[in-house]
Amino acid sequence: MIVEQVQKPTIGYVHSLESFGSVDGPGIRFVSFLQGCRMRCEYCHNPDTWNIGGGTEYTPRQLLDEALKYKNFWGDKGGITVSGGEPLLQIDFLIEYFKLAKEEGVHTCIDTCGMPFTTREPFFSRFEELLKYTDLILFDIKHIDTKGHQRLTGMPNENILEMARYLSDRDFPVWIRHVLVPERTDYDDYLYRLSDFVASLKNVQKFEILPYHKMGVYKYEEMGIRYRLEGIEPPTKERVENARRILRTAEYTGYLDS
Ligand code: SF4
């Protein structure tokens, strides 16, 4: 007797869903915030996503079926985005989810800080497999300086910058995002270094500055975690403009043609 082996789908751990996301990629998008992150960004407004292994369980098919309920709202540009937390921590789930999505012609996007990236196996082959089913990466570069990155997020950034270069070598479309935080990233020296780094990449379609805000602080109080940016206010309009000028964000217009 031949016993057919049926491979079980990988389970994804999802923190929350947003049916009509408008800031996480092109058009209107169904955004899944996946559970789990190993970074500890001082300004993180989703500390409730940190815990690895919590969240609601979905199979890739279940999550896509949920997303497809909103397909009529996506138009030409919209689709699905996975965010977090750090979605690349659940890379096997992403591969299956995006593979199913591409079979249905859905535009796919990953919002990542790049922390899990490594050219070592088994991650690297999995990452290359994932790129086959991915249309766009929203890449959050938290800090250009390694020590600054370590202080801000608890992790170094060498592998993150390596991922940015790798995607550039492959000419894989990315939108870069950078949070401007007074006393952390908002120094002209850092901004010029980041500007040079991003200008050295050939695949950046959009470059956005996200001014630091304090909207997630209440979660720290609820969770009994000390908020380490206590007393630091959002950047002024002038500093945001200064950052946009140094980073030359207006020059990254590839997203208009895509
Ligand atoms: S990478 Fe994102 S989810 Fe993780 S700590 Fe930083 S801001 Fe929060």
UniProtKB/TrEMBL annotation:
Describe the reaction catalysed, as an equation: glycyl-[formate C-acetyltransferase] + reduced [flavodoxin] + S-adenosyl-L-methionine = glycin-2-yl radical-[formate C-acetyltransferase] + semiquinone [flavodoxin] + 5'-deoxyadenosine + L-methionine + H(+)
Q: What InterPro entries has UniProt attached to this entry?
A: Aldolase_TIM (IPR013785), Organic_radical-activating (IPR034457), Organic_radical_activase (IPR012839), PFL1_activating (IPR012838), Radical_activat_CS (IPR001989), rSAM (IPR007197), rSAM_sf (IPR058240)
Listed cofactors: [4Fe-4S] cluster
How the cofactor is bound: the record states:
Binds 1 [4Fe-4S] cluster. The cluster is coordinated with 3 cysteines and an exchangeable S-adenosyl-L-methionine.
Domain (Radical SAM core): give its ranges: 23-256
Q: What is its main location?
A: cytoplasm
Q: Which GO terms describe its cellular component?
A: cytoplasm
The kind of enzyme this is, by top-level EC class, is oxidoreductase
Q: Which UniProt keywords apply?
A: 4Fe-4S, Cytoplasm, Iron, Iron-sulfur, Lyase, Metal-binding, Oxidoreductase, Pyruvate, S-adenosyl-L-methionine
Q: Where in the cell is it found?
A: Cytoplasm
Q: Which GO terms describe its molecular function?
A: 4 iron, 4 sulfur cluster binding; [formate-C-acetyltransferase]-activating enzyme activity; lyase activity; metal ion binding
Q: CDD domains from the xrefs?
A: Radical_SAM (cd01335)
Entry's EC annotation: 1.97.1.4
The free-text function statement in the UniProt record for this protein reads: Activation of pyruvate formate-lyase under anaerobic conditions by generation of an organic free radical, using S-adenosylmethionine and reduced flavodoxin as cosubstrates to produce 5'-deoxy-adenosine.
| Homology family | Belongs to the organic radical-activating enzymes family.
Q: What name does UniProt use for this protein? A: Pyruvate formate-lyase-activating enzyme
> Per the UniProt entry, what species is this protein from, by scientific name?
Dolosicoccus paucivorans
Give the gene that encodes this protein. pflA
